[in-house]
Design goal:
Distance between the termini: 18 Å
Radius of gyration: 29 Å
CATH architecture of the largest domain: 3-Layer(aba) Sandwich
Largest sheet: 6 strands, mixed
Order of helices and strands: EEHEEEHEHHHHHHEHEEHEEHHHH
Number of helices: 14
Number of domains: 3
Number of strands: 11
CATH topology of the largest domain: Rossmann fold
CATH superfamily of the largest domain: P-loop containing nucleotide triphosphate hydrolases
Strand order of the largest sheet: 3-4-5-2-1-6
CATH class of the largest domain: Alpha Beta
Length: 433
C-alpha cells in the first residue's frame, strides 16, 4: 500500500539523552536526507553527515537510509541519529517540517504502515506494543516471541491444514455425480484433529500468558492485626499501608506492584477478616473476600496453632500459609515478620516458585481476542468432525463449517475484521513507533 505523504517523528524517548533518533518514512524520505545532509549515503550503511537548515548548521549526525521493501515500514525510510540535546532535536524536527511533502507522524503510524505494507501482521503488531510496555523479563520474552511471528507461524500452519481439508471436501462436492476413487474422510479427520489438538493446547495456556502480560495478583489474607500491612511495607521497602495496634485499621485494598524473579506481581493487602458491626469495616471485609477469591494466589497469615480458614475465602491449590508476627513465635513452620524481616525472603521465594510453575505453561495467545478467535475455530472444527461422523450431513454443510474455522484464524492473524480494533491498538503506541 503506497502512502502519498511522508511522515517523521522522534523515535527515541523525549528529553535529554546522549543520542536521539529521528525517523522519516515515505516517498520523500530520501529527499529529506538530501535537504538536511546535502548528499545521500549508501543504503543500509551509516554515514557521518553535517545537518543543515538552509545555511545554518544544526548538528553532526549519523545518517542511514533503507530502501523501499527493506525497511521497517516497507517504504523508503531514513534515520537521523543526532545528539540528544533538547534544542538539537527541536531544530532538526523543525527543519524536517519545512521540507515539502513531510508531516509529523501520528501515534503508531510507522507501525501501522508496516502492517498495511505486509511487513508485519496483527499479532506481531500487538507483540511489538507489549514489548515496548514490557517491565519484566517474562513479559519481554513473551512479547518478543509474538513480535517475531511465533503465533502467526502456528496460525498459518493450522490454516494450511484446514485449507487442505477444505480442498479434499470440495473435490468430493465437485465430482458428486462421479465415483471418487478415494475416501477423503480419514485424511480430513486426521488434519482436523491435529489442528484441534494444537489450538486446544494454546488455549490451555492462554490464562497464564495473559497473567504474564497483565500481572499476577497475590492477596495477603488473615485476621486483623496479624501483620499484613507491616509485611506489605516490608515488601515494598516503603510505608504503603498505615499500621497500628488497633484491629481493623486497613479498610480498603492496598496494592504494591513488583518484579518478582522476572514476573509482574501485585501484592494485595486486604482488610482483616472478622465479625464486625462497623458498617465501613464490613464493606472493607466484603471487598477483601471478593478480591481474595479472585486473586491468583493467597497468602493466609495466621496465628500459632490456628488454621487458614477465612470466612468466605476459598482455599485454592498453591496457596501459602504463614505465621504472622513470626518474630514472636517458636513453632517450626513458615514464619514472617514485616517488622524484623524474618521469613520475608523465603515467602517471596515461595510465591515466585508457585507463579513460575504456572507461567511455564503459558501459550502465545496473550490477548483476549486471540483466545476468542481460537475458541471460535475450535467450535467450527468440532462441528465439522461431528458432520463427518454423520452420513446424512451433506459435504456442503461440513465444508461451510470448515470455512468458518479458517475465517476465525484469519481474524486472529488480522486478515479480516480488524478495523474495529486497530484504533485501540495504535492509540497505545507512542509517536515515532
Amino acid at each position: 500500500m503506497e502512502n502519498a505523504d511522508t511522515i517523521f517523528a522522534l523515535a527515541s524517548a523525549r528529553g535529554r539523552a546522549g543520542v536521539a533518533i529521528i525517523r522519516v518514512s515515505g516517498p520523500q524520505a530520501f529527499l529529506a536526507v538530501v535537504e538536511l545532509a546535502k548528499q545521500l549515503p549508501e543504503p543500509r550503511k551509516t554515514s557521518l553527515r553535517l545537518l543543515w537548515d538552509g545555511d545554518e548548521a544544526l548538528d553532526q549526525a549519523l545518517v542511514i537510509i533503507f530502501e523501499k521493501g527493506a525497511s521497517f515500514t516497507g517504504e523508503d525510510v531514513a534515520e537521523f541519529h543526532v545528539h540528544g540535546g533538547i534544542a538539537v532535536v527541536k531544530s532538526v524536527l523543525s527543519a524536517l517540517g519545512r521540507v515539502e511533502g513531510l508531516r509529523s507522524a501520528q501515534p503508531g503510524e510507522f507501525t501501522r504502515r508496516a502492517l498495511e505494507n505486509d511487513r508485519m501482521d496483527l499479532p506481531q503488531v500487538e507483540g511489538l506494543a507489549d514489548l515496548i510496555d514490557a517491565e519484566t523479563e517474562a513479559q519481554r520474552r513473551q512479547a518478543l516471541m509474538v513480535m517475531q511471528g511465533s503465533l502467526s507461524q502456528k496460525c498459518e500452519q493450522w490454516r494450511q491444514h484446514l485449507v487442505r481439508a477444505m480442498a479434499l471436501l470440495e473435490a468430493v462436492i465437485d465430482f458428486v455425480d462421479e465415483d471418487v476413487p478415494v475416501d477423503v474422510a480419514p485424511e480430513v479427520k486426521e488434519l482436523l484433529r491435529e489442528v484441534l489438538g494444537g489450538i486446544e493446547s494454546e488455549i490451555s495456556g492462554s490464562r497464564a500468558a495473559e497473567k504474564i502480560r497483565d500481572g499476577f495478583e497475590v492477596a495477603l489474607v488473615g485476621p486483623p492485626n496479624i501483620g499484613k500491612s507491616t509485611l506489605l511495607n516490608a515488601i515494598a521497602g516503603r510505608e504503603v499501608a498505615l499500621t497500628s495496634e488497633i484491629a481493623g485499621t486497613t479498610r480498603d485494598v492496598l496494592e504494591v506492584s513488583l518484579n518478582l524473579d522476572g514476573l509482574p506481581v501485585t501484592i494485595l493487602d486486604l482488610a482483616g477478616i472478622r465479625e464486625s458491626n462497623d458498617t465501613i469495616e464490613k464493606m472493607g471485609i466484603e471487598r477483601a473476600v471478593k478480591r481474595a477469591n479472585g486473586a491468583d494466589l493467597r497468602v493466609f497469615m495466621v496465628e500459632e496453632n490456628d488454621n487458614c480458614s477465612g470466612d468466605g475465602i476459598i482455599w485454592q491449590k498453591g496457596d501459602i500459609v504463614a505465621i504472622g508476627k513470626g518474630d514472636q513465635s517458636n513453632v517450626e513452620s513458615l514464619k514472617v515478620s514485616g517488622k524484623t524481616g524474618l521469613g520475608v525472603s523465603r515467602l517471596l521465594a515461595g510465591i515466585a516458585q508457585e507463579l513460575e510453575g504456572r507461567a511455564a505453561g503459558s501459550s502465545l495467545l496473550i490477548r483476549q481476542r486471540h483466545k476468542e478467535a481460537a475458541e471460535n475455530a475450535i467450535k467450527y472444527i468440532k462441528s465439522t468432525l461431528l458432520g463427518l461422523e454423520d452420513e446424512n450431513t451433506p459435504y456442503e454443510i461440513i465444508s461451510a463449517d470448515l470455512a468458518f474455522a479458517v475465517s476465525s484464524l484469519d481474524e486472529l492473524i488480522g486478515r479480516v475484521d480488524v478495523e474495529q480494533i486497530l484504533g485501540e491498538i495504535f492509540a497505545g503506541f507512542c509517536i515515532g513507533k
